């Protein structure tokens, strides 16, 4: 798998034979379509990077057939428009029926277990990665009425317009963590399992929100050019840059000096329960002397790169780094942040 999630998977330090037998992970409804045994992995692995948000969603329960269709795209602070079409596969008598917008945060977590003897010595130990999740938002909308009673074979159809999250966070898969949104039609059944239809809503970043100061950004994240010491790193187009596009990066660094090699990299830092630092998404090798008079490279932003944001205990920062590898001395580095949408 290429792209952002592919880079996360490639960073895995998992060793074959690591023990986590009998362990299972858990994710909240309606993002509970994946078997719990797929939600674990050996220490150092990244099982969440192998799962997409769409794969995690369970679109319907056993008593209903149909779908919720969403008109895309949707941005923070705008409106979600869609249509519900369903057929009851059995008689349904619910205490209530309601349309909801739910937000989930799902993360990898490092887990361990030890058994000790009577002297306190460790006799057995296990370490593994376990995926866990919770709903951090459950917003009900009563303006779209749903029938509480349906007979087997009965059909129902309606359209709806509800607000997207006013302050986010945007949807994003961060490899070791993710933020996901779904529109859910839910029938609350007394003394029985609830019936549901659900659809993923991709909530994109809003450039006005990003520029408002509500999102914590690294130094230079929205600048066309940023100077650190005598090194200037310029980006075209002016950030925020869009995932799936290319940018031109020009580094002018007169004092870079000589070295064995040099490179310009796009890196990401993921803050999460199982975070990653210095994740390399792109690297271009250069002549160390190229920085003296300025050099330009084109850097692709992965199409699946999640947006820059900070929320729900998760954050991501993208950096352009210029590095010179010097013999018998520490490397030289100059860097700047860059915001991605």
Account of the 3D structure:
With about 350 residues, the protein is mainly β. It has 2 domains: about 5-205, Sandwich (Immunoglobulin-like); about 210-340, Sandwich (Immunoglobulin-like). Helices cover about 5% and strands about 50% of the residues. The chain is built from 4 helices and 22 strands. It has helices spanning about 5-10, 55, 205-210, 290-295; strands at about 40, 65-70, 75, 80-90, 90-95, 95-115, 120-140, 150, 155-165, 170-175, 175-190, 195-200, 205, 225-230, 230-235, 245-250, 260-270, 275-285, 295-300, 310, 315-325, 330-340. The strands form 6 sheets. Strands 1, 6, 7, 10, 11 and 12 form a 6-stranded antiparallel beta sheet that branches. Strands 17, 18, 20, 21 and 22 form a 5-stranded antiparallel beta sheet that branches. A hairpin with a 2-residue loop joins strand 20 (about 310) and strand 21 (about 315-325). The chain is flat and about 80 Å long. The chain starts with a helix and ends with a strand.
Helices, by number, come to 4
Low-confidence stretches: none
Number of domains: 2
CATH topology of the largest domain: Immunoglobulin-like
Shape: flat
Estimated share of beta-strand residues: over 45%
Would you tell me the structural class of the helices and strands? mainly beta
What's the end-to-end separation, in Å? 21 Å
What about the largest sheet?
A: 6 strands, antiparallel
* Radius of gyration using CA atoms only: 24 Å
Which percent range fits the helix content? under 10%
The number of strands is: 22
CATH hierarchy, class of the largest domain:
Mainly Beta
CATH homologous superfamily designation of the largest domain: Immunoglobulins
Give the CATH architecture of the largest domain: Sandwich
The chain-level mean pLDDT equals 91
Order of helices and strands: HEHEEEEEEEEEEEEHEEEEEHEEEE
């Amino acid at each position: 798998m290429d792209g952002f999630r592919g880079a996360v998977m490639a960073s895995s330090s998992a060793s074959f034979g690591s023990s986590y037998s009998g362990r299972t992970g858990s994710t909240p409804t309606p993002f509970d379509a994946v078997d719990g045994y797929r939600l674990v992995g050996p220490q150092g692995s990244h099982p969440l990077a192998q799962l997409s948000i769409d794969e995690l969603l369970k679109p319907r329960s056993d008593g209903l057939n149909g779908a919720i269709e969403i008109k895309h795209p949707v941005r923070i602070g705008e409106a979600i428009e869609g249509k519900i079409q369903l057929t009851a596969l059995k008689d349904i008598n619910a205490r209530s029926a309601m349309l909801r917008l739910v937000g989930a945060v799902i993360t990898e977590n490092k887990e361990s277990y030890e058994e000790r003897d009577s002297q306190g010595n460790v006799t057995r130990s296990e370490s593994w990665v376990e995926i866990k999740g919770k709903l951090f938002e459950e917003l009900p909308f009563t303006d779209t009425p749903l029938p509480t009673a349906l007979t087997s074979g009965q059909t129902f159809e309606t359209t709806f317009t509800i607000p997207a999250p006013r302050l986010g966070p945007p949807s994003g898969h961060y490899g070791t963590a993710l933020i996901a949104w779904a529109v859910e039609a839910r029938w609350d059944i007394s003394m029985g399992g609830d019936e549901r239809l659900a659809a993923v809503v991709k909530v994109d970043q809003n450039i006005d929100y990003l520029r408002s100061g509500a999102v914590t950004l690294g130094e230079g994240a929205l600048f066309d050019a940023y100077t650190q010491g005598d090194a200037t790193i310029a980006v075209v187009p002016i950030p925020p840059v869009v995932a799936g596009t290319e940018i031109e990066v020009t580094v002018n660094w007169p004092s870079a000096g000589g070295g064995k090699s040099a490179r310009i990299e796009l890196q990401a830092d993921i803050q999460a329960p199982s975070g990653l630092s210095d994740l390399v998404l792109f690297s271009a090798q250069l002549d160390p002397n190229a920085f003296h008079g300025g050099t330009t490279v084109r850097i692709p932003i992965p199409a699946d790169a999640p947006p820059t944001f900070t929320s729900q205990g998760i954050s991501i920062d993208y950096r352009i780094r210029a590095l010179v590898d010097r013999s018998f001395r520490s490397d030289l580095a100059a860097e700047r942040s860059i915001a991605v949408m």
